[in-house]
Amino acid sequence: MMKRPVVLLVDDDLDMLECLEVALGPRYDLLLAADGARALELAAASRVDVIVLDLMMPVVDGFAVLKHLEKTGSKVPVIIASAMQGLERIGRALPVVDRITKPYSLVALEQRIERALESSPTEAEVDAPVSATRVSDPPMGTEPVDALEPELPRVRPEEATSDIAAAGPASLDGQPAMLNLV
Fold this sequence. Notes:
The chain has helices at residues 14-24, 36-45, 62-71, 106-119, 123-127, 162-166, and strands at residues 6-10, 29-33, 50-53, 78-82, 96-101, 104-105, 178-179. By secondary structure, the protein is of the alpha/beta class.
């Protein structure tokens, strides 16, 4: 039997973590952290295939997590998920393989997770010594990530309830559900 991929979700917004747990839990084994300190504990103690990381958090922020991962030679792909402007400039010299701006669609996040899993090192590669040469921003394809996403309607904040997330990837009208939590 194949192991399910392990995704570490790091966000100080507990509602966001709960929605992501409901939506992604059937597909991935999830580890949840509400701050960077807990994320680093979980990453050190568990096998993690992909990290989805918010930047602005209390205790230890996402920037400190990224620096720690780089310092320790981590090869786990990181997807930055943040409402912060200028994400394309963040993480160029750190272990970041992709970025997504909040609010985002669940479909867009799943696409990024799947691409990150494809680029994720095998367990043998993770255990290998770290090379002195590293690529700061591995190529993710020639098309912009947003070009791969289907056109989806945005959910207004007053419509973004836990009922939408509980409906899973598709809402009652058959359209993909939107996570519109910032």
